[in-house]
């Protein structure tokens, strides 16, 4: 990997030496040519990693020169996105495939175990270096924005780079050798991306993915909905939401719980909250299915039976019990502000969707960030 300077105090070279439009286009065409060579090589000989890595380094070097010297032009060409798949994502997927291949056998075979450890170490090093590369891009775009105050292309590029850094941190933690994973660093980076561009739905989708790692269904549903409820929705979030509801449907439906005393224990409160949130997700899945004219395989009745390709009946009895349990939880002080916000926003989004109504989408930064400013103060993956 190419070594990059990640000192955010370093000014872009554009502040020192302007680049003509012709020079910037020539530099960009160099990137395009290298990208084509890399794609052709991988198509013809996917196992030729040595030559592929040389081309990747050259492509990254060319991108750095373009970004450092002509930031706005690079941002207008979405250089940070153009590099992600050929230089990083494909290698990430290759590492993950190899790790999965050797993980099981590593338990019993010493040679495989050593190979697994070496590949895992190489993967961590790759992710660290890739993160350094995107930190540099983010800081260059951020420095340009600080000097010029405004610019749609650099803002989008800064946001995209921040999301990519979050992805790299997520992969680094997911494939670490730690017994207990901690995705706080990735979560903070996705929130930073939201602070740069609140109207972009991608960071919310990624926050939902983090929530699924710790089985926080309510948080995941909320972020998938928020990912769609933006002026730049991340459309894949709808498929992810459908998959989450289907997985929830396949689990046995949690039974309602009633407190046996007027002063329930912490254990009883926790049990009621867990039961309530699972049943709420089941209800949200039904509302989600109602938004489709043909129904959805994610839909189910309150009893948990499959309702394939038919529009589900809205379970009024389940709704009544959920309302009652929410009042009980609020009275017991179990539901915090962050969780309550997530439940309310999700209810509004899915209810409007089930009725075929379009929610107004905020198109200005102040409106788009109204939920985020509050959510940033009191939310976290562990809230739900």
TrEMBL record:
Domain Telomerase activating protein Est1-like N-terminal: 79-142
UniProt cross-references to InterPro entries, sorted A to Z: DNA/RNA-bd_Est1-type, Est1-like_N, Est1/Ebs1-like, TPR-like_helical_dom_sf
GO cellular component: telomerase holoenzyme complex
SUPFAM superfamilies referenced in this protein's UniProt entry, alphabetically: TPR-like
One MF annotation (Gene Ontology) recorded for this entry: telomeric DNA binding
One GO BP: nuclear-transcribed mRNA catabolic process, nonsense-mediated decay
Domain DNA/RNA-binding intervals: 186-350
Protein name: Telomerase activating protein Est1-like N-terminal domain-containing protein
Species of origin: Peronospora belbahrii
